[in-house]
Amino acid sequence: MSSSPSTGTHGERDAERVKLALAAGAIIGTWFWDVAQDSLTVDDALAQAHGLDPAMARSELRLEQVVSVVHPDDRQGLTQAIDEAVRRGGRYAHQYRTRGPDGAYRWIEAIGRVDLDTQGNAVGFPGVLIDIDERRRVEAERDQAQTLLRSFVEAAPGVVYAKDRQGRILIGNRGTTDLIGLPPDAYVGRTDAELLADPVQAATVMATDERVMASGQTEQLEEEVSFRDGRRAHWLSTKSPLRDPDGTVIGLVGTSLDITDRKAAEARHLEAEERYRLAAHATNDAIWDWRISDGHVIWNEALTTLFGHALSETSAQWWLDHIHPDDRARVDADIHAVIEGEGTAWNNEYRFRRADGSFASVLDRGTVLRGRGGEPLRMIGAMLDLTVREAAEAALAKSEERLRFATEAGDMGFWDVDLVRDALIWPPRTKAMFGISPDVPVSLRDFNDGIHPDDREATLAAFAAAADPVQRALYDVEYRTIGKEDGVVRWVAAKGRGHFEGDRCVRVVGVVIEITARKIADARLKELNEHLESRVLEEVAERTRVEDALRQSQKMEAVGQLTGGIAHDFNNMLATVIGPLDLLAMRLGDNDPRAKRYIDMAIDGATRAAQLTQRLLAFSRQQPLQPVPLDVNQLVAGMSDLLVHSLGSSIRLQTVLAADPWRTFADANQLENVILNLAVNARDALPGGGRLTVETANGEITAGAASAPADVPDGQYVLITVTDNGSGMPPEVIAKAFDPFFTTKKVGQGTGLGLSQVYGFVKQSAGHVKIRSAVGQGTTVTLYLPRLMADIAAAPSPTTSGTAPLSGGRERVLIVEDEPGVRQFSIDALSELGYPVLAAEGAAAALALLDSHPDIALLFTDVVMPEVNGRQLADEALKRRPDLKVLFTTGYSRNALEHDGVLDPSVHLIGKPFTLEELALRVRAVLAEVR
């Protein structure tokens, strides 16, 4: 670039100035940066200031070479400042640290100018470096001192301030701001006269400040100040003259602490001390104040008046020495345990020696006063002489003991009504008569409220007469109380008299005795005399009813045991009849119609005999049940067609089903038979036709309810009710309706086992059955079956085919039967069906066959056998052959295959007697079962 002469002249002058500045040491280096060519030229002084090789000053440098020697913490700021100057042009100034030849960093300031061309692009960037390290050090020290001063002033407790000679505030700390209640800009430069509300106080404060500044002496004093917002405060101020470096007083510095709370506390302390002094003089107790640090004790005058010691000050050891030797160690340990622990309150009873050498019983109480750290400082207490009180208490206790013995011996309580203080005294015995606990406080209201409403007027009138100064009557009444806490009604008899002072009754005192038992006895005696004959008849009738019920229960149980025993033998006999007849019919086929007719007649008779036996078992509750969760609505709805066909066209069937019935747990087939039996019984009671209603409902039996049926325990039940509008039954027939073989029908028209079967099934299902009937008004039979509370999944219904062919298989069957006829029929029947058969009459032979014939697939065994029954045989066989299938047969299975009358789910059973078809289907189903 070229320059004009004038420009050259100006440049020469600048260069001359720079040389002079360099010579004077103000500038420690110069640079010129050709920004467009990115070429940096520096002089030797700048190179030396940056710790660069001086040879580099005579060559072109890169900016980053110079920046690399700058303190790492300052590099980013330097780069940003250079970039900003190049972008905008004009003057540039920036301070940073650079490392010199000695390796130490020094503060320098770079000052330059960026020249821009006509397009605004930087073309040249000359500048100089100035050493500012000393200036920065001085500024840092100044800033540190100012920061320290501000921190000290702010941290100083209370108020710290400075004022000039005219009393204007120059500076104030945070405490000054808080105390004055104004920000600094509101009080700096103002005087107390302008800040304080009370001109007199302001003048006093300013006069004190002037005195300190004039005398040059420090003063400490208390000041009372009032603020413009109405607050008043007490300050403890320390004021000193503020001097310049020459020692001339130019103002005042001061500190002030707000001691308003301390002054109030001192006033309260003085007031408390005065109250303590007056109380110590007024009380009869010996008041003591023990300074724990040195053991000094101060006493009031009661030490002299009570115990004869003419002392007002003693040591703690003197007090301890005057305690009875037998009590001393205990008291000493007890009081020091409180002092040395964390407690504050202490009390003890001991014997204290009087001045005449005798001992007084005292109650001593004290409180420990502790410092802020919990250390014990003082203990103040009071010593009460118990001698007079103990004598009075002993006399009172003796008198009360006599009274207690007298009242307890007479089983009575006493009472004392203080009419002056409106107070009532009742011992525990009297409180009990009003249903109140021994420790509960009582008042006259408890007496008034505790009287039975029917007796209150007369009782209170009698009490008023006893307290009347004119009548002064004897209080002698009997009345009822209602227990306040227990509500129990009791009879009491009370006697008492008033105690008068002149014409005024001050107390009414008396005794009371409970007479509830006597009143009850009198009432019972009166009732017995009035109703003796009727009660005797009622008792006899009740006893007769109970005896009849017991006899009926015993009779039903005996019949049940008898029928169960008969059924087993009868079923075995029927098995030897029905089975062979069935085989004979199959062998004859249709060759001889007359013989087939005779065989069918015999089978029909034997089958009806088997049904009769089944009803006997149902009555005796010895039939095996297979209960499942039941919806009675579905069961009743499902058998509607069967009921309609059974009743005939002259009887109209109506079903009333519950909206949301509970479920029960019962044998579905047996329950259907029960409902069918009830319907058939109702049909026989409706010879001319009528209406039969089957209803389901949910029912809950609650003790004491008017509608609760007799002998049905509390609980929730599923109800099935069968009602007819037929001829009904008289009471004597109802009483025998469930008896087996009892019937009102003509000979040959009924077995008398229909309702017996109903009774047996319901009882075996843990339910109940009730009959309501009246002659000419119909009959209602209600079944109460327990509600199923648990969630039990319904068992899958067995699937059987009514058209399955009468055929067997090739699996080997082992027959075990102790009855020869039944065993032979079983052999013949299974052989006829094509099964290979082995037979045994008992368990021992059966197990031997089982061991010797591993191809046996099915064990077909009777349940009731001598020595080892069928269930025991099956258990042993399954231990040897877990895959063996088992089919039981029995005419009486009680306690062998059942739990509480319910058939085990895993048991397969065919009842005796059985037909060839039933046997074929059952054997095939068991063998086909997949485990």
TrEMBL record:
<dbReference type="Pfam" id="PF08447">
    <property type="entry name" value="PAS_3"/>
</dbReference>
<dbReference type="InterPro" id="IPR036097">
    <property type="entry name" value="HisK_dim/P_sf"/>
</dbReference>
<dbReference type="InterPro" id="IPR003661">
    <property type="entry name" value="HisK_dim/P_dom"/>
</dbReference>
<dbReference type="Pfam" id="PF00072">
    <property type="entry name" value="Response_reg"/>
</dbReference>
<dbReference type="Pfam" id="PF08448">
    <property type="entry name" value="PAS_4"/>
</dbReference>
<keyword id="KW-0418">Kinase</keyword>
<dbReference type="Pfam" id="PF02518">
    <property type="entry name" value="HATPase_c"/>
</dbReference>
<dbReference type="InterPro" id="IPR052162">
    <property type="entry name" value="Sensor_kinase/Photoreceptor"/>
</dbReference>
<feature type="domain" description="PAC">
    <location>
        <begin position="346"/>
        <end position="398"/>
    </location>
</feature>
<protein>
    <recommendedName>
        <fullName>histidine kinase</fullName>
        <ecNumber>2.7.13.3</ecNumber>
    </recommendedName>
</protein>
<dbReference type="Pfam" id="PF00512">
    <property type="entry name" value="HisKA"/>
</dbReference>
<dbReference type="InterPro" id="IPR035965">
    <property type="entry name" value="PAS-like_dom_sf"/>
</dbReference>
<feature type="domain" description="PAC">
    <location>
        <begin position="92"/>
        <end position="144"/>
    </location>
</feature>
<dbReference type="GO" id="GO:0000155">
    <property type="term" value="F:phosphorelay sensor kinase activity"/>
</dbReference>
<dbReference type="InterPro" id="IPR013655">
    <property type="entry name" value="PAS_fold_3"/>
</dbReference>
<dbReference type="InterPro" id="IPR000700">
    <property type="entry name" value="PAS-assoc_C"/>
</dbReference>
<feature type="domain" description="PAC">
    <location>
        <begin position="475"/>
        <end position="527"/>
    </location>
</feature>
<feature type="domain" description="Histidine kinase">
    <location>
        <begin position="565"/>
        <end position="789"/>
    </location>
</feature>
<dbReference type="InterPro" id="IPR000014">
    <property type="entry name" value="PAS"/>
</dbReference>
<feature type="domain" description="PAC">
    <location>
        <begin position="219"/>
        <end position="271"/>
    </location>
</feature>
<dbReference type="InterPro" id="IPR013656">
    <property type="entry name" value="PAS_4"/>
</dbReference>
<feature type="domain" description="PAS">
    <location>
        <begin position="145"/>
        <end position="216"/>
    </location>
</feature>
<feature type="domain" description="PAS">
    <location>
        <begin position="272"/>
        <end position="342"/>
    </location>
</feature>
<dbReference type="InterPro" id="IPR005467">
    <property type="entry name" value="His_kinase_dom"/>
</dbReference>
<dbReference type="InterPro" id="IPR001789">
    <property type="entry name" value="Sig_transdc_resp-reg_receiver"/>
</dbReference>
<dbReference type="InterPro" id="IPR003594">
    <property type="entry name" value="HATPase_dom"/>
</dbReference>
<dbReference type="InterPro" id="IPR004358">
    <property type="entry name" value="Sig_transdc_His_kin-like_C"/>
</dbReference>
<dbReference type="InterPro" id="IPR011006">
    <property type="entry name" value="CheY-like_superfamily"/>
</dbReference>
<keyword id="KW-0808">Transferase</keyword>
<feature type="domain" description="Response regulatory">
    <location>
        <begin position="812"/>
        <end position="927"/>
    </location>
</feature>
<feature type="modified residue" description="4-aspartylphosphate">
    <location>
        <position position="862"/>
    </location>
</feature>
<dbReference type="InterPro" id="IPR036890">
    <property type="entry name" value="HATPase_C_sf"/>
</dbReference>
<dbReference type="InterPro" id="IPR001610">
    <property type="entry name" value="PAC"/>
</dbReference>
<keyword id="KW-0597">Phosphoprotein</keyword>
